Amino acid sequence: MHRFPLPRNRGVRLHRSSSSRFSSVALTLTAYLRIGIAQRIGCRPDSASLHSPIVERRCARRDCRPMQYVTVRVPASTSNLGPGFDCLGVALRMYNDVVVTRGAKSPPQAVAGEAADMFFRHTQRAPFLFSASITGNIPRTRGLGSSVTVRLGILHALNAFTGNRVGRLSIFQLCAELEGHPDNAAPATFGGFTVVRSSATVSVGRSRLATASPFGGKRDACLTLQRFAVSERLYFVLLIPDLEINTSRARQILPSQIRRLAAVKNCANACAITAAFASDNYSDLRGAFADHLHQPYRKKLIPFLPRVIAAAEKAGALGAFLSGSGSTITAVTLRSPTKIAAAMKRAAGSTSAHAVITHADNRGARIIRSPITDY
After folding, report:
1. Phi/psi at 20 (nearest 5 deg)?
2. Which residue has the higher pLDDT, 220 or 146?
3. Mean pLDDT of 12-28
4. 105, 321, 339, 361: least CB-packed within 10 angstroms?
């Protein structure tokens, strides 16, 4: 019997050209798979997939054009909530859509131009021409954060144009610096109920916490941000008068000092509001919106403010307050929002105004349409 030697185990080796083609196909499939999954779940594909050499080469063959426009949806915000001056805010389900088009020749408006200048300085990117258009249902100069919607829209759009290299927290900080105060910028950026304070130290609690360097502050200080989702059970009833209030004017009438007792009451009420939102015990909000820091002085600009607040509370609201610097007055309630809206309108008397009933927005600013999301 003849014994034939068995062949030794040898690894299978691909020819170099075959191996290269196999790797190319695998990388291409991986990149497109990531893009497809991101589209399916409603997210933007990651930059590594979009800008991989293989995808870029294939796009070049198809004459793919660079992203030319971005639409950013930004919610309105009601701030201060009475005693939480420049600290507390809630995002609302009223929106402005900011459409930014790259390469346009018409210069943007002043607010948009200031946001762009700050973005390019912060990122050290070369400026480029763009135009911006704003549509939506957030009225201007009514204390609902309309200027924040424009600034955030510009910042998010320019960030998308330049590869999303700036994080959401940094965008919030840039917007707060442009505004001069963070109480509208925080909820409009992150959604929900937000508390912002300036501090040199950071403590971590059970809530979502973030920090950023504050505007006009020391380098070792930071803005501490806490954010809480707001339940659908809570209604926000807005009385929006046909009365424009200039924010700078509304700040100029405030005193430089207040009494210690007034400060103590404001601190207690602001703490109570924060605890109620953090624990979802919204019934604890009743009586906590009273303010002694700014509303007593701003009623000179809005004479019907006290009686509208009283009417809202009498109709069943947990409380009511001046939204930002006004002229909008916001009531918060768990029941009977229509009845409260009617009572607030009657209390405004001959002042022309309309009421809006809405809920909190828990998402914050977001890109809703661009060639990237439509890939």
Report:
1. -65, -40
2. 146
3. 47
4. 105
